[in-house]
Specification:
The structure is a homodimer of 329-residue chains. Chain A folds into two domains: 171 residues, Rossmann fold (3-Layer(aba) Sandwich); 145 residues, Hypothetical Protein Tm841, Chain: A,domain 3 (2-Layer Sandwich), CATH 3.30.1180.20. Helices cover 32% and strands 25% of the residues of chain A. Chain A contains eight helices and 15 strands.
Chain lengths: 329, 329
């Protein structure tokens, strides 16, 4: 597998520079691989910071901007950023109202973001942390990984912060989303590490892997490739037992190498399956939101919504990777 | 190569249904594979219609919405839609102010859109047509294909129409963009037809193809894969001789299977090369805008801009595949 890159050791730094160059009105690159809003910190607003290993673009820097995050911190590919770098992101995001860290549940990320939280608190910044664990392919809740559902946490917590809610309330609504949101993914092909060129796992032609992670982790099960309706039924079969409430947001998320046409096809069958099972889709998403380099595959995320969550989902947002405009514009 | 799909004969119709299901507030599917604005036709506004073969998502239906297109018409994969279907798109887009057809320069598309224009005129609808031919990998201008530059035609003509310009002026500004915009692409891997599973061309590992089309067409030249800076320099070497004016919009467009991280890396080297050559980037784009199924590769588009074009590029737009918000929102 060959990549468009200059050299593997510069994969992340080149990518971060390119992102900042492509969106100069909106994004600013700090020393090191940290991206902030060019107009931040926003006075009077609780700050939101996310990040983690790279390779998940547009997550997380693509969500920096109005209505979502204030800063994103990049580690190397699939590697947690160090606490000092996260601290820089926190400082850039804090306008005096404190900062919420939105962290995916991987031990390296949780440890490093927690250390950065302590460092920031020693400097007098109020920091809270919310850990996303939406991947149902892991049985034990405490071991569940943070995957595409993280983007909906960014969106809803970001909208609450933009609406002027204090840090405590922004954290509470992030926790509310985390308690509800569930995801499971599959792949038709693995991703390849820039440095080694090695795949995360090997798949034969005509095989697929169910329950994969977003770092090349193998899944629960390997089986022959099936038609889209069978795949979406299988994935939803793992999500619906944890989704009692019938009004949901549905996200069909591509893994980086999946064309939109296939995501729209998957969306159709997921939506039809949900309808037949008595669910109502209050808000839908189909696109590449939380990827694993060039992996070909997708995940389905379900978020049971109420009026509060739906209002925040539909609030305006303008970022490189996500947009939501006011109705009627 | 395996795809996420139900069956190849339903690839396009399933995809169109999925798109309409994912964006029910904004998009409406007509009988046949036509997508229109759910609130269209917009009173008092010249209508914009585009389309062509499928497989280029988000082009063109992803650009239906505020500030861009009013309708998009899908043929089967890489196959022009028939005139009757295009006529349905024209009717849905016309509010009485007439309709501009934005067509990529392929003989099938040009013939079929032209026939639809005649049919619509027999029904009393004023129709104009603009043919995009931005691909410099073909030497003779009249044979040049329409590729990613088409999206900038959608954006600028769409903004002019949204600003209330009459059809004649909308067409004139589309022609102004077409006279200036230039694109060239490359691929690290081909795309595969849903029906046959066959690739458009064969590439060995470590080979790349320069000057490819967006339908699996082979390129000008095959050579060993090079570092990103060399590739962007080679592509820009073919664009700059046709780009005398120094203020440009730069689009780095993914071919469908290219992760954003690689597009940002390509953007960085393209931007640096342009700067060294004395160009100023007034507006930048990096993303998947005009794709070829799951092809791994990218194209570079340059559009020399003046105040008028830049104002329309920066005007608000809200569609599934493209967004541009007013500054400060």
């Amino acid at each position: 597998m060959i990549k468009l890159m200059q050299e593997s050791s510069r994969y992340v730094s080149d990518m971060v520079e390119g992102l900042a160059l492509a969106f100069p009105d909106r994004l600013k690159k700090l020393e090191g691989n940290v991206i902030t809003r060019s107009d931040g910190p926003v006075k009077g607003k609780a700050g939101l910071v996310s990040g983690g290993g790279s390779g998940h673009e547009p997550a997380h820097a693509g969500y920096v901007g109005d209505g979502m995050l204030d800063a994103a911190v990049f580690g190397e590919v699939f590697t947690s950023p160090v606490p000092d770098l996260i601290l820089e992101g926190i400082k850039a995001a804090d306008s005096g109202e404190g900062v919420l860290l939105i962290v995916k549940n991987y031990s390296g990320d949780v440890i490093n973001f927690d250390m950065a939280k302590e460092l920031a608190e020693m400097e007098g910044i109020h920091v809270e942390m919310a850990v996303v664990n939406d991947d149902v392919s892991i049985e034990k809740t405490e071991d569940r990984r943070g995957v595409a559902g993280t983007v909906l946490v960014h969106k809803i917590a970001g909208a609450a912060a933009a609406a002027g809610k204090p840090l405590s309330e922004v954290k509470a609504i992030a926790e509310k989303v985390i308690s509800r949101v569930r995801t499971i993914g599959m792949a038709l092909s693995p991703c390849y590490m820039p440095e080694s060129g090695k795949p995360g796992f090997e798949l034969k032609e005509q095989e697929m892997e169910i329950g994969i992670g977003i770092h090349g982790e193998r899944g629960l099960e390997r089986k022959p490739v099936a038609p889209a309706a069978d795949i979406t039924a299988e994935l939803l079969g793992k999500l619906l037992p944890e989704t009692a409430q019938k009004e949901v947001a549905l996200m069909v998320n591509g893994m980086g190498g999946t064309p939109l046409s296939e995501l729209y096809i998957a969306y159709k069958y997921a939506a039809e399956h949900l309808k037949e099972a008595g669910y109502t889709i209050k808000k839908g998403y189909a696109g590449n939101y939380m990827t694993a380099l060039e992996m070909h595959g997708f995940s389905i995320t379900l978020l049971p919504v109420d009026e509060e969550l739906l209002t925040y989902l539909k609030a305006p947002a303008s970022t490189a990777g996500f947009h939501e405009m006011e109705e009627g514009i």
